[in-house]
Amino acid sequence: MAEQPERTTELGTGAARAAVAFDPLARVWLTEAEVGSSRPDLAYVPRLDGSLRVDLGSLADDGDDFGHIVHHPPGSVLRTGSVDDIAAMIRFCDAHHIEVAARGQGHATFGQAQVAGGLVIETEPLSRIGPVGEREVTVGAGAVWSAVVKETLRHGLTPPVFTDYLELSVGGTLSVGGLGGQARLFGAQVDNVIALEVVTGAGEVVSCSPTRRPDLFRAVLAGLGQCAVIVSATLRLISAPATVRRYQLSYSDLETFLDDQRRLAETGPFTYVEGTAEQDENGAYTSFVIEAVAYGPPAGSTGTVPDEDVAEAEDVAEDVAEALRGLGYDGSGPIVAEALGYFDFLNRLASGVADLKNAGYWTWAHPWLNLVLPGDRAAELARTLLDGIAGQDVGPGGVVLLYPLVRRRLHTPLLRVPDDPVPSLMAVLWTLDPADPAAISARTAANRAAFETVRAAGGTQYPVGAVPMTAADWRGQYGKEWEEFAAAKRRYDPHGLLAPGQHIFTA
Ligand SMILES: Cc1cc2nc3c(=O)[nH]c(=O)nc-3n(C[C@H](O)[C@H](O)[C@H](O)COP(=O)(O)OP(=O)(O)OC[C@H]3O[C@@H](n4cnc5c(N)ncnc54)[C@H](O)[C@@H]3O)c2cc1C
Protein backbone atom coordinates (compact mmCIF):
# COMPACT_ATOMS: atom_id res chain seq x y z
CA MET A 1 0.00 0.00 0.00
CA ALA A 2 1.31 3.45 -0.87
CA GLU A 3 2.54 5.51 2.03
CA GLN A 4 0.01 8.22 2.76
CA PRO A 5 0.67 11.89 3.37
CA GLU A 6 -0.29 13.23 6.74
CA ARG A 7 -2.87 15.96 6.93
CA THR A 8 -1.49 19.40 6.27
CA THR A 9 -0.15 20.81 9.52
CA GLU A 10 -2.07 24.04 9.57
CA LEU A 11 -5.62 23.50 8.49
CA GLY A 12 -8.07 26.26 7.95
CA THR A 13 -11.50 25.97 9.45
CA GLY A 14 -14.32 27.05 7.18
CA ALA A 15 -12.52 29.04 4.51
CA ALA A 16 -11.61 27.23 1.29
CA ARG A 17 -7.85 26.80 1.13
CA ALA A 18 -6.10 25.63 -2.00
CA ALA A 19 -2.90 23.60 -1.97
CA VAL A 20 -0.21 24.63 -4.43
CA ALA A 21 2.51 22.17 -3.48
CA PHE A 22 3.24 18.87 -1.81
CA ASP A 23 6.18 18.28 0.48
CA PRO A 24 7.32 14.73 -0.36
CA LEU A 25 9.44 14.38 2.76
CA ALA A 26 7.01 15.71 5.33
CA ARG A 27 4.15 14.34 3.21
CA VAL A 28 1.99 17.41 3.66
CA TRP A 29 0.13 19.65 1.22
CA LEU A 30 0.99 23.33 1.39
CA THR A 31 -0.90 26.48 0.48
CA GLU A 32 0.72 29.44 -1.25
CA ALA A 33 1.13 31.23 2.06
CA GLU A 34 2.82 28.18 3.60
CA VAL A 35 5.23 27.77 0.70
CA GLY A 36 6.48 31.33 0.78
CA SER A 37 9.29 31.77 -1.70
CA SER A 38 10.05 29.13 -4.31
CA ARG A 39 11.45 25.92 -2.77
CA PRO A 40 13.24 23.23 -4.78
CA ASP A 41 12.39 20.52 -2.25
CA LEU A 42 8.66 20.77 -2.99
CA ALA A 43 6.56 19.19 -5.74
CA TYR A 44 4.37 21.89 -7.23
CA VAL A 45 0.78 21.00 -8.06
CA PRO A 46 0.16 21.18 -11.83
CA ARG A 47 -1.92 24.04 -13.19
CA LEU A 48 -5.58 23.11 -12.68
CA ASP A 49 -8.88 24.30 -14.13
CA GLY A 50 -10.42 23.48 -10.77
CA SER A 51 -8.72 23.66 -7.38
CA LEU A 52 -7.12 21.49 -4.77
CA ARG A 53 -8.77 22.02 -1.39
CA VAL A 54 -7.15 21.45 1.98
CA ASP A 55 -9.58 23.32 4.22
CA LEU A 56 -10.97 21.39 7.13
CA GLY A 57 -14.54 21.57 5.82
CA SER A 58 -13.66 19.94 2.50
CA LEU A 59 -11.56 17.26 4.18
CA ALA A 60 -14.26 16.49 6.73
CA ASP A 61 -16.99 16.30 4.07
CA ASP A 62 -15.05 13.82 1.98
CA GLY A 63 -13.98 11.88 5.05
CA ASP A 64 -17.61 10.90 5.55
CA ASP A 65 -20.39 9.31 3.51
CA PHE A 66 -24.05 8.33 3.70
CA GLY A 67 -23.19 5.49 6.06
CA HIS A 68 -21.69 7.89 8.64
CA ILE A 69 -19.79 4.93 10.06
CA VAL A 70 -16.30 5.24 8.55
CA HIS A 71 -14.46 8.56 8.79
CA HIS A 72 -11.15 8.85 6.95
CA PRO A 73 -10.44 12.43 5.93
CA PRO A 74 -8.31 12.76 2.81
CA GLY A 75 -5.22 14.97 2.64
CA SER A 76 -6.68 17.03 -0.19
CA VAL A 77 -9.78 17.29 -2.35
CA LEU A 78 -9.81 17.99 -6.08
CA ARG A 79 -12.72 20.23 -7.04
CA THR A 80 -12.51 18.99 -10.59
CA GLY A 81 -12.45 21.62 -13.30
CA SER A 82 -11.81 19.31 -16.26
CA VAL A 83 -10.85 15.81 -17.30
CA ASP A 84 -7.30 17.12 -17.70
CA ASP A 85 -7.33 18.02 -13.99
CA ILE A 86 -8.07 14.41 -13.10
CA ALA A 87 -5.37 13.05 -15.38
CA ALA A 88 -2.81 15.58 -14.12
CA MET A 89 -3.60 14.94 -10.46
CA ILE A 90 -3.53 11.16 -10.83
CA ARG A 91 -0.11 11.41 -12.48
CA PHE A 92 1.01 13.73 -9.68
CA CYS A 93 -0.26 11.32 -7.03
CA ASP A 94 1.35 8.40 -8.84
CA ALA A 95 4.71 10.16 -8.73
CA HIS A 96 4.36 10.77 -4.99
CA HIS A 97 2.65 7.54 -3.91
CA ILE A 98 -0.57 9.23 -2.84
CA GLU A 99 -3.73 7.13 -2.94
CA VAL A 100 -6.77 8.43 -4.81
CA ALA A 101 -10.52 7.87 -4.70
CA ALA A 102 -13.23 9.23 -6.96
CA ARG A 103 -16.32 10.50 -5.20
CA GLY A 104 -19.68 11.06 -6.83
CA GLN A 105 -22.46 11.81 -4.36
CA GLY A 106 -20.77 10.07 -1.43
CA HIS A 107 -23.72 7.72 -0.94
CA ALA A 108 -21.58 4.71 -0.20
CA THR A 109 -22.16 3.44 3.33
CA PHE A 110 -18.84 2.07 4.53
CA GLY A 111 -16.01 4.35 3.43
CA GLN A 112 -15.83 3.02 -0.14
CA ALA A 113 -15.12 6.49 -1.61
CA GLN A 114 -12.78 7.55 1.18
CA VAL A 115 -9.00 7.59 1.22
CA ALA A 116 -7.21 8.33 4.47
CA GLY A 117 -4.70 11.09 3.85
CA GLY A 118 -4.95 10.68 0.07
CA LEU A 119 -6.66 12.63 -2.70
CA VAL A 120 -10.42 12.59 -3.23
CA ILE A 121 -11.48 13.52 -6.75
CA GLU A 122 -14.93 15.06 -6.67
CA THR A 123 -16.64 14.24 -9.95
CA GLU A 124 -19.74 16.34 -9.29
CA PRO A 125 -18.61 19.19 -11.58
CA LEU A 126 -18.46 16.72 -14.49
CA SER A 127 -22.22 17.02 -14.86
CA ARG A 128 -22.64 17.75 -18.56
CA ILE A 129 -25.51 15.87 -20.21
CA GLY A 130 -25.89 15.34 -23.92
CA PRO A 131 -26.73 16.37 -26.50
CA VAL A 132 -29.27 13.57 -26.58
CA GLY A 133 -28.92 11.36 -29.66
CA GLU A 134 -31.42 9.11 -31.33
CA ARG A 135 -30.72 6.16 -29.05
CA GLU A 136 -27.95 7.30 -26.73
CA VAL A 137 -26.61 10.12 -24.60
CA THR A 138 -23.15 10.88 -23.31
CA VAL A 139 -23.10 12.24 -19.77
CA GLY A 140 -20.44 13.36 -17.33
CA ALA A 141 -19.72 10.89 -14.55
CA GLY A 142 -20.80 13.43 -11.95
CA ALA A 143 -24.29 13.89 -13.40
CA VAL A 144 -27.02 12.50 -11.18
CA TRP A 145 -29.63 10.21 -12.68
CA SER A 146 -32.50 12.61 -11.97
CA ALA A 147 -30.82 15.24 -14.16
CA VAL A 148 -30.03 12.69 -16.86
CA VAL A 149 -33.60 11.46 -17.16
CA LYS A 150 -35.08 14.95 -17.02
CA GLU A 151 -32.98 15.83 -20.05
CA THR A 152 -33.65 12.64 -22.02
CA LEU A 153 -37.38 12.87 -21.34
CA ARG A 154 -37.41 16.14 -23.25
CA HIS A 155 -36.72 13.89 -26.25
CA GLY A 156 -39.18 11.18 -25.26
CA LEU A 157 -36.31 8.90 -24.26
CA THR A 158 -35.07 7.33 -21.05
CA PRO A 159 -32.29 5.14 -19.74
CA PRO A 160 -33.89 1.72 -19.24
CA VAL A 161 -32.92 1.03 -15.61
CA PHE A 162 -32.94 3.18 -12.49
CA THR A 163 -31.88 2.86 -8.91
CA ASP A 164 -34.73 3.52 -6.49
CA TYR A 165 -33.15 6.83 -5.52
CA LEU A 166 -32.17 9.13 -8.38
CA GLU A 167 -29.70 11.50 -6.69
CA LEU A 168 -26.75 9.16 -7.21
CA SER A 169 -23.98 9.93 -9.68
CA VAL A 170 -23.70 8.05 -12.95
CA GLY A 171 -20.06 7.23 -12.16
CA GLY A 172 -21.02 6.01 -8.70
CA THR A 173 -23.73 3.59 -9.78
CA LEU A 174 -21.79 2.35 -12.82
CA SER A 175 -18.98 1.52 -10.41
CA VAL A 176 -21.25 -0.80 -8.43
CA GLY A 177 -23.80 -2.06 -10.97
CA GLY A 178 -26.99 -0.04 -10.64
CA LEU A 179 -29.95 -2.28 -9.81
CA GLY A 180 -33.64 -1.53 -9.78
CA GLY A 181 -36.98 -3.09 -10.56
CA GLN A 182 -36.44 -2.73 -14.31
CA ALA A 183 -33.34 -4.96 -14.15
CA ARG A 184 -35.62 -7.97 -14.66
CA LEU A 185 -36.12 -6.79 -18.24
CA PHE A 186 -33.09 -4.67 -19.08
CA GLY A 187 -30.30 -5.89 -16.81
CA ALA A 188 -28.42 -3.51 -14.53
CA GLN A 189 -27.40 0.03 -15.43
CA VAL A 190 -23.94 -1.31 -16.29
CA ASP A 191 -25.54 -3.56 -18.91
CA ASN A 192 -26.81 -0.47 -20.72
CA VAL A 193 -23.55 1.36 -21.26
CA ILE A 194 -22.29 1.83 -24.81
CA ALA A 195 -18.91 3.40 -24.09
CA LEU A 196 -16.88 5.06 -21.36
CA GLU A 197 -14.19 7.66 -21.09
CA VAL A 198 -11.93 7.01 -18.12
CA VAL A 199 -8.68 8.12 -16.54
CA THR A 200 -6.63 5.12 -15.51
CA GLY A 201 -4.55 4.79 -12.37
CA ALA A 202 -1.57 5.71 -14.54
CA GLY A 203 -3.21 9.02 -15.44
CA GLU A 204 -4.01 8.06 -19.02
CA VAL A 205 -7.29 9.29 -20.58
CA VAL A 206 -8.79 6.34 -22.48
CA SER A 207 -12.02 5.68 -24.36
CA CYS A 208 -13.29 2.14 -24.05
CA SER A 209 -16.27 0.08 -25.15
CA PRO A 210 -17.11 -3.57 -25.83
CA THR A 211 -14.92 -3.36 -28.96
CA ARG A 212 -12.30 -0.77 -27.98
CA ARG A 213 -10.03 -1.67 -25.07
CA PRO A 214 -12.69 -4.18 -23.99
CA ASP A 215 -10.60 -5.43 -21.07
CA LEU A 216 -10.64 -1.95 -19.56
CA PHE A 217 -14.37 -1.55 -20.25
CA ARG A 218 -15.05 -4.83 -18.47
CA ALA A 219 -12.79 -3.88 -15.54
CA VAL A 220 -14.46 -0.52 -14.97
CA LEU A 221 -18.17 -1.43 -15.12
CA ALA A 222 -19.10 -2.61 -11.63
CA GLY A 223 -15.35 -2.44 -10.98
CA LEU A 224 -15.66 -0.46 -7.73
CA GLY A 225 -13.32 2.26 -8.95
CA GLN A 226 -10.31 -0.06 -8.92
CA CYS A 227 -8.84 0.44 -12.38
CA ALA A 228 -9.88 3.91 -13.50
CA VAL A 229 -11.96 6.98 -12.76
CA ILE A 230 -14.97 7.19 -15.06
CA VAL A 231 -15.23 10.70 -16.48
CA SER A 232 -18.11 10.18 -18.90
CA ALA A 233 -20.44 7.43 -20.04
CA THR A 234 -22.47 6.90 -23.19
CA LEU A 235 -25.77 5.41 -22.13
CA ARG A 236 -28.31 3.46 -24.13
CA LEU A 237 -31.75 5.06 -24.31
CA ILE A 238 -35.17 3.64 -25.07
CA SER A 239 -38.53 5.28 -25.64
CA ALA A 240 -40.06 6.55 -22.41
CA PRO A 241 -43.63 5.84 -21.43
CA ALA A 242 -45.79 8.84 -20.56
CA THR A 243 -47.37 7.07 -17.62
CA VAL A 244 -47.09 3.87 -15.65
CA ARG A 245 -49.54 1.83 -13.64
CA ARG A 246 -48.30 0.57 -10.30
CA TYR A 247 -49.78 -2.45 -8.51
CA GLN A 248 -49.14 -3.53 -4.95
CA LEU A 249 -49.96 -7.11 -4.06
CA SER A 250 -50.00 -8.39 -0.47
CA TYR A 251 -48.81 -11.78 0.70
CA SER A 252 -48.64 -13.51 4.03
CA ASP A 253 -46.62 -16.43 2.75
CA LEU A 254 -42.96 -15.86 1.85
CA GLU A 255 -42.69 -18.76 -0.59
CA THR A 256 -45.77 -17.73 -2.54
CA PHE A 257 -44.47 -14.16 -2.65
CA LEU A 258 -41.12 -15.33 -4.03
CA ASP A 259 -42.72 -17.75 -6.50
CA ASP A 260 -44.93 -15.00 -7.86
CA GLN A 261 -42.03 -12.58 -8.08
CA ARG A 262 -40.07 -15.15 -10.04
CA ARG A 263 -42.96 -15.66 -12.37
CA LEU A 264 -43.43 -11.91 -12.94
CA ALA A 265 -39.70 -11.47 -13.42
CA GLU A 266 -39.32 -14.13 -16.07
CA THR A 267 -42.19 -13.06 -18.26
CA GLY A 268 -45.22 -10.84 -18.43
CA PRO A 269 -46.29 -7.24 -18.74
CA PHE A 270 -44.59 -5.65 -15.73
CA THR A 271 -41.45 -3.79 -16.74
CA TYR A 272 -40.56 -3.25 -13.09
CA VAL A 273 -40.86 -5.75 -10.24
CA GLU A 274 -39.69 -5.14 -6.70
CA GLY A 275 -40.94 -6.16 -3.26
CA THR A 276 -40.68 -5.58 0.46
CA ALA A 277 -40.89 -7.63 3.64
CA GLU A 278 -42.92 -6.02 6.42
CA GLN A 279 -42.92 -6.43 10.20
CA ASP A 280 -46.08 -7.14 12.18
CA GLU A 281 -46.83 -5.62 15.59
CA ASN A 282 -44.60 -8.24 17.23
CA GLY A 283 -41.68 -7.38 15.00
CA ALA A 284 -41.87 -10.60 12.96
CA TYR A 285 -41.67 -10.46 9.17
CA THR A 286 -45.01 -11.97 8.29
CA SER A 287 -46.20 -9.94 5.34
CA PHE A 288 -44.76 -9.18 1.96
CA VAL A 289 -45.71 -6.81 -0.82
CA ILE A 290 -44.93 -7.11 -4.51
CA GLU A 291 -44.64 -3.81 -6.33
CA ALA A 292 -45.23 -4.43 -10.03
CA VAL A 293 -45.28 -1.61 -12.54
CA ALA A 294 -46.60 -1.78 -16.09
CA TYR A 295 -45.41 0.89 -18.48
CA GLY A 296 -47.90 2.70 -20.68
CA PRO A 297 -47.35 3.57 -24.34
CA PRO A 298 -44.34 5.72 -25.23
CA ALA A 299 -44.61 9.46 -24.74
CA GLY A 300 -44.75 11.51 -27.94
CA SER A 301 -41.18 12.04 -29.02
CA THR A 302 -39.23 14.04 -31.51
CA GLY A 303 -39.48 11.71 -34.45
CA THR A 304 -37.77 8.68 -32.94
CA VAL A 305 -38.84 5.31 -34.27
CA PRO A 306 -41.03 3.08 -32.11
CA ASP A 307 -38.97 1.05 -29.69
CA GLU A 308 -39.05 -2.71 -29.83
CA ASP A 309 -38.02 -2.81 -26.16
CA VAL A 310 -41.24 -1.27 -25.00
CA ALA A 311 -43.47 -2.67 -27.71
CA GLU A 312 -44.26 -5.47 -25.29
CA ALA A 313 -45.43 -2.89 -22.79
CA GLU A 314 -47.89 -1.18 -25.12
CA ASP A 315 -51.55 -1.78 -24.59
CA VAL A 316 -50.88 -3.94 -21.59
CA ALA A 317 -54.20 -3.78 -19.79
CA GLU A 318 -55.28 -7.19 -20.94
CA ASP A 319 -51.90 -8.75 -20.22
CA VAL A 320 -51.92 -7.25 -16.73
CA ALA A 321 -55.33 -8.69 -15.95
CA GLU A 322 -54.15 -12.05 -17.21
CA ALA A 323 -50.91 -11.92 -15.19
CA LEU A 324 -52.71 -10.93 -11.99
CA ARG A 325 -55.23 -13.73 -12.39
CA GLY A 326 -52.52 -16.33 -12.14
CA LEU A 327 -50.99 -15.05 -8.89
CA GLY A 328 -51.40 -16.21 -5.30
CA TYR A 329 -51.60 -12.89 -3.46
CA ASP A 330 -53.91 -12.63 -0.48
CA GLY A 331 -57.50 -12.48 -1.63
CA SER A 332 -58.39 -10.63 1.54
CA GLY A 333 -55.98 -7.75 0.96
CA PRO A 334 -56.65 -5.13 -1.69
CA ILE A 335 -54.68 -4.83 -4.89
CA VAL A 336 -53.61 -1.23 -4.82
CA ALA A 337 -53.33 0.17 -8.32
CA GLU A 338 -52.46 3.72 -9.24
CA ALA A 339 -51.50 5.59 -12.37
CA LEU A 340 -48.45 7.82 -12.19
CA GLY A 341 -46.50 10.05 -14.54
CA TYR A 342 -43.31 8.27 -15.57
CA PHE A 343 -40.93 10.75 -13.92
CA ASP A 344 -43.05 10.86 -10.76
CA PHE A 345 -42.75 7.10 -10.58
CA LEU A 346 -38.97 7.18 -11.04
CA ASN A 347 -38.67 9.98 -8.49
CA ARG A 348 -41.04 8.36 -6.00
CA LEU A 349 -38.57 8.48 -3.09
CA ALA A 350 -37.96 12.22 -3.30
CA SER A 351 -40.63 13.41 -0.90
CA GLY A 352 -39.86 10.72 1.68
CA VAL A 353 -36.17 11.61 1.51
CA ALA A 354 -37.03 15.29 2.01
CA ASP A 355 -39.00 14.31 5.13
CA LEU A 356 -36.09 12.25 6.46
CA LYS A 357 -33.73 15.16 5.84
CA ASN A 358 -36.04 17.60 7.58
CA ALA A 359 -36.33 15.29 10.56
CA GLY A 360 -32.53 14.91 10.74
CA TYR A 361 -32.52 11.16 10.02
CA TRP A 362 -30.60 11.42 6.74
CA THR A 363 -27.44 12.02 8.79
CA TRP A 364 -28.03 8.97 10.99
CA ALA A 365 -25.87 5.90 10.48
CA HIS A 366 -26.79 3.56 7.61
CA PRO A 367 -25.16 0.17 8.09
CA TRP A 368 -26.90 -1.28 5.07
CA LEU A 369 -26.86 -4.93 4.13
CA ASN A 370 -27.25 -5.85 0.46
CA LEU A 371 -27.05 -9.49 -0.55
CA VAL A 372 -27.93 -11.49 -3.64
CA LEU A 373 -29.55 -14.81 -2.78
CA PRO A 374 -29.54 -17.78 -5.14
CA GLY A 375 -33.13 -18.20 -6.30
CA ASP A 376 -33.38 -21.88 -5.42
CA ARG A 377 -32.44 -21.12 -1.78
CA ALA A 378 -34.07 -17.68 -1.55
CA ALA A 379 -37.05 -18.68 0.59
CA GLU A 380 -34.95 -20.52 3.16
CA LEU A 381 -32.23 -17.84 3.28
CA ALA A 382 -34.65 -14.93 3.41
CA ARG A 383 -36.55 -16.62 6.23
CA THR A 384 -33.33 -17.19 8.20
CA LEU A 385 -32.21 -13.58 7.72
CA LEU A 386 -35.63 -12.14 8.50
CA ASP A 387 -35.96 -14.23 11.65
CA GLY A 388 -32.51 -12.98 12.64
CA ILE A 389 -33.65 -9.36 12.57
CA ALA A 390 -37.19 -9.92 13.84
CA GLY A 391 -38.11 -7.56 16.63
CA GLN A 392 -35.36 -5.09 15.73
CA ASP A 393 -36.26 -1.62 14.59
CA VAL A 394 -34.74 -0.93 11.16
CA GLY A 395 -35.11 2.75 12.00
CA PRO A 396 -36.79 5.78 10.44
CA GLY A 397 -37.17 5.24 6.72
CA GLY A 398 -35.60 1.80 7.07
CA VAL A 399 -36.94 -0.88 4.77
CA VAL A 400 -36.36 -4.50 3.79
CA LEU A 401 -36.29 -4.99 0.04
CA LEU A 402 -36.59 -8.40 -1.58
CA TYR A 403 -36.86 -8.58 -5.34
CA PRO A 404 -35.92 -10.73 -8.31
CA LEU A 405 -33.16 -10.34 -10.87
CA VAL A 406 -33.01 -12.28 -14.09
CA ARG A 407 -29.59 -13.80 -14.64
CA ARG A 408 -29.74 -13.91 -18.43
CA ARG A 409 -30.24 -10.13 -18.54
CA LEU A 410 -27.05 -9.47 -16.55
CA HIS A 411 -23.99 -9.43 -18.78
CA THR A 412 -21.40 -7.42 -16.86
CA PRO A 413 -18.73 -9.80 -15.55
CA LEU A 414 -17.87 -7.87 -12.37
CA LEU A 415 -21.46 -7.56 -11.21
CA ARG A 416 -21.39 -10.73 -9.18
CA VAL A 417 -24.63 -12.60 -8.76
CA PRO A 418 -25.27 -16.26 -7.99
CA ASP A 419 -25.37 -18.73 -10.81
CA ASP A 420 -29.14 -19.12 -10.77
CA PRO A 421 -31.78 -18.11 -13.32
CA VAL A 422 -33.63 -15.78 -10.93
CA PRO A 423 -31.56 -14.65 -7.95
CA SER A 424 -33.14 -12.34 -5.35
CA LEU A 425 -31.70 -9.08 -4.12
CA MET A 426 -32.25 -8.72 -0.40
CA ALA A 427 -31.47 -5.35 1.14
CA VAL A 428 -31.92 -4.37 4.77
CA LEU A 429 -31.64 -0.59 4.82
CA TRP A 430 -30.98 0.28 8.44
CA THR A 431 -31.11 3.80 9.87
CA LEU A 432 -29.51 3.84 13.32
CA ASP A 433 -28.89 6.53 15.89
CA PRO A 434 -25.25 7.65 15.57
CA ALA A 435 -25.23 8.26 19.33
CA ASP A 436 -25.12 4.49 19.80
CA PRO A 437 -21.84 3.34 18.21
CA ALA A 438 -22.05 -0.05 19.94
CA ALA A 439 -25.31 -0.78 18.13
CA ILE A 440 -23.75 0.23 14.82
CA SER A 441 -20.72 -2.02 15.39
CA ALA A 442 -23.01 -4.87 16.35
CA ARG A 443 -24.98 -4.29 13.17
CA THR A 444 -21.94 -4.38 10.87
CA ALA A 445 -20.81 -7.58 12.63
CA ALA A 446 -24.29 -9.04 12.08
CA ASN A 447 -24.10 -7.95 8.43
CA ARG A 448 -20.89 -9.89 8.13
CA ALA A 449 -22.51 -12.99 9.63
CA ALA A 450 -25.46 -12.66 7.24
CA PHE A 451 -23.07 -12.37 4.31
CA GLU A 452 -21.31 -15.56 5.41
CA THR A 453 -24.62 -17.41 5.64
CA VAL A 454 -25.59 -16.32 2.14
CA ARG A 455 -22.15 -16.94 0.69
CA ALA A 456 -22.14 -20.49 2.06
CA ALA A 457 -25.34 -21.06 0.07
CA GLY A 458 -23.83 -19.70 -3.15
CA GLY A 459 -24.89 -16.06 -2.76
CA THR A 460 -22.93 -12.84 -3.12
CA GLN A 461 -23.02 -9.37 -1.65
CA TYR A 462 -24.07 -6.38 -3.70
CA PRO A 463 -21.19 -4.14 -2.64
CA VAL A 464 -22.91 -0.92 -1.61
CA GLY A 465 -23.49 -1.77 2.03
CA ALA A 466 -21.60 -1.98 5.30
CA VAL A 467 -20.15 -5.49 5.27
CA PRO A 468 -16.57 -5.84 6.52
CA MET A 469 -14.65 -7.74 3.82
CA THR A 470 -11.14 -9.16 3.63
CA ALA A 471 -9.04 -9.50 0.48
CA ALA A 472 -9.81 -13.23 0.57
CA ASP A 473 -13.55 -12.50 0.71
CA TRP A 474 -13.23 -10.35 -2.39
CA ARG A 475 -11.35 -13.05 -4.21
CA GLY A 476 -14.23 -15.41 -3.44
CA GLN A 477 -16.81 -12.83 -4.43
CA TYR A 478 -15.22 -12.40 -7.86
CA GLY A 479 -14.71 -16.14 -8.32
CA LYS A 480 -13.78 -16.97 -11.90
CA GLU A 481 -13.52 -13.26 -12.74
CA TRP A 482 -10.82 -12.67 -10.15
CA GLU A 483 -7.78 -13.35 -12.34
CA GLU A 484 -8.92 -11.00 -15.09
CA PHE A 485 -9.88 -8.32 -12.57
CA ALA A 486 -6.52 -8.58 -10.79
CA ALA A 487 -4.69 -8.48 -14.14
CA ALA A 488 -6.59 -5.33 -15.12
CA LYS A 489 -5.72 -3.78 -11.77
CA ARG A 490 -2.02 -4.47 -12.38
CA ARG A 491 -2.25 -3.12 -15.93
CA TYR A 492 -4.33 0.01 -15.36
CA ASP A 493 -3.51 0.93 -11.76
CA PRO A 494 0.00 -0.47 -11.53
CA HIS A 495 0.86 1.25 -8.25
CA GLY A 496 -2.42 0.44 -6.56
CA LEU A 497 -3.54 4.03 -6.05
CA LEU A 498 -7.25 3.84 -6.76
CA ALA A 499 -10.21 3.36 -4.39
CA PRO A 500 -8.42 1.79 -1.41
CA GLY A 501 -11.59 2.23 0.66
CA GLN A 502 -12.98 -0.89 -1.01
CA HIS A 503 -10.17 -3.00 0.55
CA ILE A 504 -10.07 -5.32 -2.45
CA PHE A 505 -6.40 -5.19 -3.33
CA THR A 506 -5.22 -3.62 -0.08
CA ALA A 507 -5.39 -4.73 3.53
C1 LIG B 1 -30.66 6.38 -0.63
C2 LIG B 1 -29.90 5.39 -1.49
C3 LIG B 1 -30.59 4.58 -2.36
C4 LIG B 1 -29.91 3.66 -3.16
N1 LIG B 1 -30.62 2.87 -4.01
C5 LIG B 1 -29.97 2.01 -4.81
C6 LIG B 1 -30.69 1.21 -5.73
O1 LIG B 1 -31.91 1.24 -5.81
N2 LIG B 1 -29.98 0.39 -6.55
C7 LIG B 1 -28.62 0.34 -6.51
O2 LIG B 1 -28.03 -0.38 -7.30
N3 LIG B 1 -27.93 1.06 -5.62
C8 LIG B 1 -28.57 1.89 -4.77
N4 LIG B 1 -27.86 2.62 -3.86
C9 LIG B 1 -26.41 2.41 -3.76
C10 LIG B 1 -25.67 3.29 -4.74
O3 LIG B 1 -25.94 2.88 -6.07
C11 LIG B 1 -24.15 3.21 -4.54
O4 LIG B 1 -23.80 3.45 -3.21
C12 LIG B 1 -23.45 4.19 -5.46
O5 LIG B 1 -22.08 3.86 -5.55
C13 LIG B 1 -23.61 5.61 -4.95
O6 LIG B 1 -23.24 6.55 -5.93
P1 LIG B 1 -22.39 7.82 -5.47
O7 LIG B 1 -22.36 8.75 -6.61
O8 LIG B 1 -22.87 8.36 -4.20
O9 LIG B 1 -20.98 7.11 -5.29
P2 LIG B 1 -19.88 7.33 -4.15
O10 LIG B 1 -20.42 6.91 -2.84
O11 LIG B 1 -19.35 8.69 -4.25
O12 LIG B 1 -18.78 6.26 -4.61
C14 LIG B 1 -19.03 4.87 -4.48
C15 LIG B 1 -17.84 4.08 -5.03
O13 LIG B 1 -17.72 4.32 -6.42
C16 LIG B 1 -16.48 4.93 -6.72
N5 LIG B 1 -16.74 5.97 -7.71
C17 LIG B 1 -17.60 7.01 -7.61
N6 LIG B 1 -17.58 7.72 -8.75
C18 LIG B 1 -16.69 7.12 -9.57
C19 LIG B 1 -16.21 7.38 -10.87
N7 LIG B 1 -16.64 8.42 -11.58
N8 LIG B 1 -15.28 6.55 -11.39
C20 LIG B 1 -14.82 5.49 -10.69
N9 LIG B 1 -15.23 5.20 -9.45
C21 LIG B 1 -16.15 6.00 -8.90
C22 LIG B 1 -15.98 5.50 -5.40
O14 LIG B 1 -14.57 5.62 -5.37
C23 LIG B 1 -16.50 4.47 -4.43
O15 LIG B 1 -15.65 3.36 -4.40
C24 LIG B 1 -28.51 3.54 -3.05
C25 LIG B 1 -27.81 4.34 -2.15
C26 LIG B 1 -28.50 5.26 -1.37
C27 LIG B 1 -27.75 6.08 -0.37
From the structure above, extract its key features:
single chain, 507 residues, alpha+beta, Uridine Diphospho-n-acetylenolpyruvylglucosamine Reductase, domain 2, Uridine Diphospho-n-acetylenolpyruvylglucosamine Reductase, domain 3, Vanillyl-alcohol Oxidase, Chain A, domain 3, 3 domains, 8-stranded antiparallel sheet, 5-stranded antiparallel sheet, 16 helices, 22 strands, 22% strand, globular, disordered N terminus, binds flavin-adenine dinucleotide
Produce the secondary structure layout.
Elements: E1 19-23, E2 28-31, H1 32-35, E3 43-44, E4 51-53, H2 56-61, E5 76-79, H3 83-95, E6 100-103, E7 119-122, E8 129-132, E9 136-140, H4 145-153, E10 157-158, H5 170-176, H6 183-186, E11 193-200, E12 205-208, H7 214-220, E13 228-236, E14 238-239, E15 243-251, H8 254-266, E16 272-279, E17 285-295, H9 308-311, H10 317-325, E18 336-341, H11 342-346, H12 350-358, E19 369-373, H13 378-389, E20 399-404, E21 424-429, H14 437-456, E22 460-461, H15 471-478, H16 482-492
Parallel strand pairs: 5-7, 6-7
Antiparallel strand pairs: 1-2, 1-3, 4-5, 8-9, 9-13, 10-14, 11-12, 11-13, 15-17, 15-18, 16-17, 16-20, 19-21, 19-22, 20-21
Flavin-adenine dinucleotide is lined by residues 65-66, 101-108, 112-113, 123, 141, 163-165, 168-169, 171-173, 175-180, 224-225, 229-230, 464, 499, 501-502.
